[in-house]
Amino acid sequence: MVTETLPAAVSTRRSRTLLFLLYFLFGSLAEGCQGIVLLWLVYDLSHNAFLVSVMVMLGYLPAAVIGLLFKRIADRGRADRIARSTNLTLACTSTVLGVQQLAAGHAVALVLTVIGVVQVVLSLAKMLNKAALNRLIRLAFADQDAAQLLKTSSSVSLIGQVAGAGLAGLVLTQGWIAAGLLCAAVAYAASAGSLALGTRGAEAAECAARDGAGVGDYRDEGDGRLAAGTAVRVAGGAEPERAVRGGAVGKIRWSSALVSVLVFSVPSSGALQFIAILLVPLSRQVAPDQPSYYAILGIVAIGGSITASLLLSANLVTAGQVMGWALPATAALALLLATLPSRYPAGLLSFLITVTITAHVICMQVLTNQLPRPQEIGQFAVARNVVASLAKASFSLAAGTLIEVFGLSTASVVLAGVLAAFWIGWLLFGQSLRAPAVGTA
User: Fold this and answer.
1) Top-level CATH class of 6-440?
2) Pick from 305, 269, 277: which is nearest to 384 by CA?
C-alpha cells in the first residue's frame, strides 16, 4: 500500500511527467536530425528516389514481420527495462553511423550497406520501444493524465523534430555528416537517461496508485507482471478489471472499433511517409545546389505537424472532425502539389498536408492507447505498429517507384486517389469510432 501524502504524490507525478516529456524531446530531436541526414545522404550518393524508398522501407518492414511473432509476448517483461534498452540501442546505432562516416564516408557501396543494416536494427528497436512505452504510460498515469501526456508529447516531439531538422540543415550546409549523426547518438542517449530517471524507484503499477487511480493496491512480480488477482484500471473511468491470474496474457478481444483503428491507421501513416519520400527529389527539383532546402522543407512540414497537435490539444478541432475530413483535405492538397511544383507553393503545401495528415495520425495514436483493455495494450500497440509499418513500407516503396518511373506529379495524383478511396471507406464503414469519448483525442 502506498502511503505518500497528496503533495508528495503530486510532486512525483509532475517530475515523472517532465522526465517523460524530456524523453520524447531528445528522442524526436535525434530522429529528426538523423532521418533528414540519412535520406539526403542516400539520395546524394545514388540520385535514385527508389533507393531512398528502399532504405525507408527497411526502417519499417522488419518491425512489421517480427511484430507478428512478437505480439503475443508484448505485455510481458519489465516495460521500463525494455524501453531503456531499446533507446540505448538507438544511441549505439547512431554512433556506428557517425564513426562509419568518419572512417569511410566516400565508399558509396559501404555507406549504403551500413545504412540499410542500421535501418533494420532501428526498425526492431523502435517496435519494442513503442510497445513498452505504451505500457509504461498507461500504467504510470491515470487515464486522463495519460491522454493529456500523449497529446502534450506530440507537441514536444514535434518541437524536438524541428530542432533536429534545423541541426540537420546546418550539418548538410557545412558538410558535417558525421557530426550530425554523432549528435543524434548523444540525443538518443539523453532520451534513454531521461526515461531511466522517470521510472527510477517506482514500478509502473505502483505509479498508477500514486496518481490516485483509486483502484486498489498494485504489486509487481519482478518481471513486469501484476500479481494474481490485483486490480487494474480500464479506460474511460469504468470499473476495474481483474488481472489475468498469474500474469498470463490473454488474446485481444477484437471489436469493430479496434479493427477500425488498424484499418484507418493505414492511410495517414502511409501518406506521411509518402510525402517524406517525395520531399527529397522535390527539394532537388525546385532548389538544385541547395542541400539546406530539403531541411527547410522538413522544418516547414514539422511546423504543420506542431500546428495539428496544438489544434487538437486546445480542442479547436475534435477527433470526429479530423477523422471525417483529414483524408479528403490531404487528397485535395496532394492534387495541388502535383500542379504547383515550385519553391514557395511546395513549402506552403507541405505545411498544410502535414497539418491534416498528422492530426489523423495523432487521433489514431490516442485511440491505440485508450481503447484496448489494460492487459491488451502492448499486444494492440504491436498490432497497430505492424499495420502502420506495413503501410509506411508499402507507401514508401510506391512513392519511390512512381517518382522514378512517372515523376513527381503522377506520384502526387496517385496519393490523392488512394486517400480518397480510404475516405469513402470511412464514410461507409468507420462509424464505430465516432464515440463521444474520442473527441478529446
Assistant:
1) mainly alpha
2) 269
